[in-house]
Amino acid sequence: MDNFSYQSPTRYIFGRGVENQTGSLTASMGCKKVLIVYGQGSAIRSGLLHRVKVSLHEAGIAYVELPGIKPNPTDGPVRIGIELCRAVGVDGLIAVGGGSVIDTAKAIAAGVLYEGDFWDFYSGKAVVQQALPVGVVLTIPAAGSEGSGNSVITNEANRQKISIRTDTALRPKFAVMNPELTLTLPLDQTAAGVADMMAHIMERYFSPTADVETTDRISEGLLMAIIHEAKRIVADPSNYEARANIMWSGTLAHNGICGCGRREDWSSHGLEHVLSALYGVAHGAGLAVVFPAYMTYVTAKNPVKIAQFGRRVFGVVEPDDTVAALEGIKCLREFFTHIGLPLTLGQLGITEPDFDKFVADFHRDKGTPWGAYYPLYPADTEAIYRLML
Amino acid sequence: MDNFSYQSPTRYIFGRGVENQTGSLTASMGCKKVLIVYGQGSAIRSGLLHRVKVSLHEAGIAYVELPGIKPNPTDGPVRIGIELCRAVGVDGLIAVGGGSVIDTAKAIAAGVLYEGDFWDFYSGKAVVQQALPVGVVLTIPAAGSEGSGNSVITNEANRQKISIRTDTALRPKFAVMNPELTLTLPLDQTAAGVADMMAHIMERYFSPTADVETTDRISEGLLMAIIHEAKRIVADPSNYEARANIMWSGTLAHNGICGCGRREDWSSHGLEHVLSALYGVAHGAGLAVVFPAYMTYVTAKNPVKIAQFGRRVFGVVEPDDTVAALEGIKCLREFFTHIGLPLTLGQLGITEPDFDKFVADFHRDKGTPWGAYYPLYPADTEAIYRLML
Fold first, then answer.
1. Is A228 in the B-facing interface, judged by CB distances under 8 Å?
2. What is the pLDDT along chain B (389 residues), one digit of tens a residue?
3. Taking CB atoms and an 8 Å limit, are B211 and A244 in contact across chains?
4. Is the dihedral of CA A142, A145, A150, A151 positive or negative?
């Protein structure tokens, strides 16, 4: 086990009706005027945004709004939000939505207190030292941004999709999580979210660090719970209990608990970010295509952890590591198919893949080599992309 | 799943040599003069206390000391500590030790800022609203107090052992956790700690709340990791990796993550507190006697969760719930015996048990009925105590 430092200070308020506590929670983070960031209108149509505003109003908190955040969020709205916050004198942000909305709110929260251009944080020119407090009303269980210190933004000019991670500076102060809000989430979006949260665990699980039994068992337990509950949602999308377990699992998948004491990999996210930056594919759907390909490739290099995944998560009984690993990948593919996820570039709508560009973009964004479980050089990267055909 | 609120803001600094960060961590919680609370001298003999003092000194932090805290800590030293803090003008506490030391430091931290007698918090007359910041240098993985908002103190006058739980007021600001410090921990103390951390998980796991798959899987994963690593320590007490996994598991067992979304039981802790208050037995050893007896009794009333424990934690393959439950309890007893724990009152040194007094004390402290998985009335309580013969 490696030395580590871990702190996850976010307050989670979970269950039916909890969005009505948004106002008092916002007041408890010391705010009087906030920017509400949200997406493309579903929070308006469902009445959620109205309830959040009523709750803020009852707590005596003023607000301005930044609507219209799209999936794979870009730098443009971040700059608009920063200007708005400065002009109005905002002292906190409330993100009402999923990962794209939350990541945008985090970027604004850090950018408002920074003299230079906020993209400096994403290009590596600067490190986030401080940010306005951010509260979250979560509507999509997937990105885990409600409990993480991370933010992912795509630069519109060069299509670079960059993820940054802070220890605590960008962790939300609170996350209001009502599973009822997810009961009407379409199955394709639910499935993409499931792939995303599973990926957050697996990026940490496929690690070269030995002797992390505690962290391994937590990771495997979360994966088993997610697989079990996702199948229940496919059978009955209005199952509150299944939705609740998925929502909570998505937070724990990415709040860092699955990474304690080990090096993390993050190759697959890098491989997927190239695809979603170029084609705008749903991040989770892209991950469903990337992960089995990645796992298949590295099984030939180092099957140990892929085999453990097969045995412990899917109950594979095979003495040989390579066989157990491949059997586990087969189970993973079957599960992804069962919940309606794509498995190939073609199913993602990428019919004429430019592998040279994929490889070049991956190593431009990540460097060479990249990855902890098995360090990827361009030949490895190309081979993995070709396994997605 | 039940609605819940969860926040675990403690910063964990984990690994070799991390005690040397105590000074900078103490400074980061805004302290200039602290009370160091510790036990009966092992921290002096090992040189740990010296290293902590050097670290504090280098960070410009003054300190006074409260040594001599014993297992099953009592109210006397808490009152001395409160007076000392007030006289010297302390602005924080550093607990160097295990649960007894940490719980004493927490009681002092709350008592210093309270006008009345600190026991009011334990007798239920008052609720902890604020406390001085507490930092921890952990030496014994067991109680989980380094990450919990709990504190257990025994009243010397009437031998009442009372546990209080706060949401965040009594959670340490940081916990410095170096598994090297536990390499020389005697096996009996190690085993008692293992029983304690397993009990913290099982008190939450034996719940009447259905549909908590995520929390169940985390709990089961932690139990499996603890069992696996405890056996490795018995085989080689100097195994750093096994000690590290046990140490981290002990924190997660009690920081609340295993309770999210469900009612918790806590019958067995109540049953044990009666024994340790009357006889001063080691809490963990007492729990090893109590738990199998409790589980056996409630299997006849409601075997569902005990059976799931047997199947998922010990891999029992039995279709019948009662059979699976009893087989799981058998495995648990065998594991406790393997690591050197007692299984009967006699093995605890309690040769002439006064069952009437046990039952009366239990219901005096806890009320009637007590317990969530199966509510205990005096007849149930006596039957469970008799199963410990």
1. yes
2. 999 999 999 999 999 999 999 999 999 999 999 999 999 999 999 999 999 999 999 999 999 999 999 998 999 999 999 999 999 999 999 999 999 999 999 999 999 999 999 999 999 999 999 999 999 999 999 999 999 999 999 999 988 888 999 999 999 999 999 999 999 999 999 999 999 999 999 999 999 999 999 999 999 999 999 999 999 999 999 999 999 999 999 999 999 999 999 999 999 999 998 998 899 898 999 999 999 999 999 999 999 999 999 999 999 999 999 999 999 999 999 999 999 999 999 999 999 999 999 999 999 989 999 999 999 999 999 999 999 99
3. yes
4. positive
Residue A169: Cβ-neighbour burial (10 angstroms; 0-12, 13-18, 19+)? middle
Cβ contact A248–B261 (<8 Å) = yes
Helix (H) or strand (E) holding A34: strand A33-38
Exposure string over B39-53, b if 16+ CB within 10 A, otherwise e: beebbeeeebbebbb
Partners of B211 on chain A (C-beta within 8 Å) are 241-242, 244-245
Q: What is the maximal distance between C-alpha atoms in chain A?
A: 64
Residue B266 in 3-state DSSP?
coil
Task: Record the tokens describing residue A243, joined without a space.
Answer: 């939705």
Give whole-number Cα distances, A299 to A32, A295, A305, B337, in Å.
Answer: 53, 6, 9, 40
ipTM: 0.96
Alpha-carbon gap: A228 to the closest alpha carbon of chain B (Å): 8
